[in-house]
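Record type: monomer structure entry
Structure origin: computed from sequence
Chain ID: A
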Amino acid sequence: MLFAVGGTGQHVALAAARLVRLRALPPIECTVIDNDDKGALSDALRHFGGTLSTGAEEPMPHPLPGGAKFIPTYDRTAAPHATLESLLVDPRSPEEERWLFELFFDETEGRTQVSEGMFARPNVGSTVIAVSQIDSLGLVLDHARSFDRIFFTGSLVGGTGAGLVHQLVRQLRVRVGPDKPIFGSFLLRWFSAGSGSGAYITDPGMDQNARHGVEYLFSDTRRDLSGAMLLGVPGQPFKRVGMLTTQTGAVHERPSFLHLVAARGLLLLPDAQKTEGNGHVYAFGHDDAQEDELLSATWHGGKTLTERVRSAVVAASLLEFAAEKADDIADGFGLLGRKYVDGLHQTIRDHAKAADVKPQTFTKRLAACFRAEERQLRFALAWVEDLLGKQALPERLAVATKGDADRKAVLEQAWKAPIPPPRGSEKPHVAKVALELEERLFTWATA
């Protein structure tokens, strides 16, 4: 299970979702803990870049099982537009409470709109989570007990991640006991606030947060972790890990190589724990002279990222082709029609019968799923190309760019064996059929 904390956590969760979709990571359940859940970044994570809708009755599933679930750090139903001050004191509060509030927080911190985020103020974030009585947060921490291993990701420089992650790790360790593996992929400052972004989020302020966060990680939080990865060195010169510039309040995605590395930590940290034991904090070495390092490394399933990307390029092209040929496939069920692809024809016929719909109707829905699958794969592939360059996307296999006859021959081979319909009273799911057909294209392309 993955806990993605704050805006950086959302970035890493979206990176992980793309890698799951490419089969480079195993499926992992994800919960996002952040008050800022209404921007373009959150929408991209929640709806996987707008690729879940098929236009038919059944949507495509999210790569993260059950989708990304968002949980705020306090009960926003009672205070949808809360500031830190309004959460802690009000006109009815005793004078002593207001004195204490003014002792610990300055005027700017008191006005922080915590309903929208913590704005790079870890003391605000830690205070909100400390006083929060939100039931859903406790429930999801308890839910984590059922998983073999648990991951946290976020930054040590902002307000939400830096303010919450240490307390969340401590609370979870108390709940799950000393033996459950808990890992963390944490980022230092990976972006610059820019010179004109306003005074309430600044690069020096974030660097100061990082110094305190790293100190607390080593002195306290590390004892509750089975292993952690610490990523990013402010001002470092590496081309792939260059500092991004953003603006305060920007809620769209800013892809970074470090998000890819943090997601890879989901594979590396458990392996490191097995060989080196608990409590270690790791860095990730990078050399611009070896830009294909992550492409040639082994990922989930024993395949390299290059192999996964190559298979996805081919699968996306063939799914696009199959969707374009939906009318030809549907015509095969007519009185004088000819089967377009034998195995696919039988799969559609059997599932349509089990669903009590016409084969032509099932074909139309299946084609809609093919288009959604293609969009999902291209959404993930575009991100890989953005991070690693065009060398990350090998040229499509010849069969993916040749004529219809060649591509049809691949479908005949990959989809030769029909997919049996579900047994008993269970109704067929068009999306499941489409994903199984896609899996066979991946298998064919990898082989």
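Annotation 1: The mean pLDDT is 84.
Annotation 2: The first helix runs from residue 6 to 21.
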